[in-house]
Amino acid sequence: MPGVWSYADIADDLAGGLERVLRELDAEHAVYGLDAREEVELHPVLADLLRRAGYGVHREQRYPADRKKRRNSEGERCDLVLTPEGRALRQPDQAATLFDAPGAVDLDDAFWLEVKTVAQHTVEGPNRQYSSQLLSSVQQDVSKLARDPGILHAGLLIVLFVHNELVADHDLRIWQDRCLERGLPIASPCLRLVPMQDRMGNALCAIALYPVRHL
Q1: Which are the contacts of 61, defined by CB distance < 8 A and separation ≥ 6?
Q2: What are the tens digits of pLDDT across the range 9-36?
Q3: φ, ψ of residue 213 in degrees (nearest 5)
Q4: CA-based angle 50:52:58, to the nearest 5?
Q5: Per residue in 115-124, pLDDT tens?
Q6: Taking 50 as the threshold, does the pLDDT of residue 154 lie above it?
Q7: Which residues in 187-215 are b (16+ Cβ under 10 Å) and which e?
Q8: Are 106 and 93 in contact, with CB atoms under 8 Å apart?
Q9: Strand 111-119 vs strand 154-162: parallel, antiparallel, or unpaired?
Q10: Mean pLDDT along residues 127-146
Q11: Which residue among 26, 98, 125, 195 is the one 20 to 30 A from 167 at the CA level?
Q12: Considering only CA atoms, which of 61, 108, 63, 55 is closest in space to residue 80?
């Protein structure tokens, strides 16, 4: 139903989907797991999991505030925008046509989701940029979501591939404290932990979905 979103349900759907994908990789005796993939390679995986869970998934959508710009190529874009029941997303900045999808969801009824994936260990060894990747650009994503007046439902998804639960809990707490110190409006996350085969130092996939409120 448009306008009603459950962060817990989204986190559950992602965790269940990722667990299935990880088990499939194990069954295939894959040399590398999801943690070896670049973030841009994981976005379509996450989008597919949410689509299979019944959501409409719309990738790389311009932020509502940027739709005032004339060129479609201008403005920042959100990683994933979700609509209920697989429905289309209304595009108010585009001319209406006879072929517009019926029941399209307005931008302010959709769920805007920025995604960040970070691995503690990479194929080359310990990730030397792990802390900076987690602490820098992710906070920028929160600010973008919080400041856009056209977004009412938003979240930040952090997918961490780490050695164990202690690392995930410690690092997410530090990240959360940094955000709160800067006045960024996040709430307590829906956290889901999915064990995974340790191929290169990561034995846990931590899924943290943070609600983002307006500034």
Answers
A1: 77, 78, 81, 89, 112
A2: 999 999 999 999 999 999 999 999 999 9
A3: -105, 170
A4: 50
A5: 999 999 999 9
A6: yes
A7: eebbbbbbebeebbbbbbbbbbbbbbeee
A8: no
A9: parallel
A10: 86
A11: 26
A12: 61
CB atoms within 10 A of CB 89: 18
Has residue 91 got a pLDDT over 70? yes
Please report which helix (H) or strand (E) contains residue 44, including its range: helix 39-52
End-to-end CA distance of the chain: 25
Q: Taking the domains of the chain in order of start, what are their residue ranges?
A: 7-114+121-211
110 near 89, Cβ under 8 Å?
Answer: yes
Angstrom distances, CA of residue 138 to CA of 31, 38, 54, 130, 131 = 29, 16, 27, 12, 11
Q: Is 180 helix (H, G, I), strand (E, B) or coil?
A: helix
Contact 205/160 with Cβ under 8 angstroms?
yes
Evaluate whether 68 touches 148 at the Cβ level (below 8 Å). Answer: no
Mean pLDDT of 73-93: 87
What mean pLDDT comes out for the span 178-200?
A: 94
Q: Tokens 């110190």 correspond to what residue?
A: 181
What is the spatial distance between Cα 48 and Cα 56, in angstroms, rounded to a whole number?
10
Which residue shows structure tokens 């006045």?
Answer: 183
Closest CA to 15 of 46, 43, 36: 46
What the block records as the tokens of 98 is: 């006879």
Q: Are 205 and 194 in contact (CB under 8 A)?
A: yes
